[in-house]
Amino acid sequence: MPDPNKSLLDRLADFLTPQPTEPGERRRELTNTLREAQAEGLIDADALSMIEGVFQVGQLCARDILVPRAQIDWIDINKSLPEIIKSVIEAAHSRFPIFEGGRDNVIGILLAKDLLRHATENDFQVRDWLRPAVFIPESKRLSVLLRDFKDNRNHLAIVVDEYSGVAGIITIEDVLEQIVGDIEDEHDIDEEADNLIALDNGGIRVKGITELEQFNKTLGTHFEVEDIKTVAGLVIQHLGRVPKMGELIEIDGIEFEVQRADSRQIHILLARQVHKKSD
After folding, report:
1. Same domain (yes/no): 265, 205
2. Which of 180, 210, 233 is the last residue of a domain?
3. Residue 210 CB neighbours (<10 A)
4. Which residues 6+ apart lie within 8 Å of 221 measured at CB?
């Protein structure tokens, strides 16, 4: 137990020297001390959240945050060049796993910048511009993976299961978001007007921080829960936990599909009305 007679800064300094305490207990002590520091104004809430995120990264594995294979934007090497360009533009990612014959046979990674810079060259062949694919097991610790990403200057890894099949992919952004929260780029929806985007299939892409009032007004729903202000909060409150990517949750005639989430929060959902069958 921390010595109550020591000052907060003295207790923080103690963690810089070796101690015989178990690592788990030391981590809890440090977290509690840092929360005290935040309460006393020595560090802000964002800094505390990032430190706790670092601890979390040390405990999570690739399987915990990977993008499942069903949600990967794959590219078949045997597709025509116009088809490949169309897929890259529509998906708006920077990197794509390329397969040949089957999706468990990933032959490389295509960078969108390579494709768009050189596709007009007469002798351009997609196969010539593939970067080597990095394969990792589902059990790989995120802390180790982050160091590998940094040392090898990789940004994407293919996660394989115990049978060498592709379980999903994971990017350096996915790992960093466990520390700093959601990282929005130029393709993420970030304006209030874009919190709700109607899709061609009749669904609506919803940002997790969308306020229930805006959601109700757009869809004609009447969601109202005490102390719950956002769509993400509604789903988490209904489920009793943070759902995983791909999970389906039905609430009062609206089906929510979690399209982007981490272990702490929901970022993007797909909402659609459920049509009940008449008896």
Report:
1. yes
2. 180
3. 23
4. 215, 252, 253, 254
Please report whether residue 185 resides in a domain: no
Residue 2 within a domain = no
Q: Which two tokens stand for residue 86?
A: 């169309």
The bridge status of strand 67-68 relative to strand 166-171 is antiparallel
pLDDT in tens, 220-267: 999 998 888 899 999 999 998 888 878 999 999 999 998 877 766 788
Instruction: Inform me whether the pLDDT recorded for 2 exceeds 70.
Output: no
Residue 278 lies in a domain: no
Place of tokens 């350096």: 172
Identify whether residues 32 and 108 lie together within a single domain.
no
Q: Is residue 45 part of a domain?
A: yes
Domains contained in the chain, number: 3
Torsion angle of C-alpha atoms 251, 255, 260, 265, degrees rounded to 10: 0
Report which of 166, 146, 167, 170 is spatially closest to residue 157, judged by C-alpha positions.
170
With a CB cutoff of 8 Å and minimum separation 6, the contacts of 190 are 184
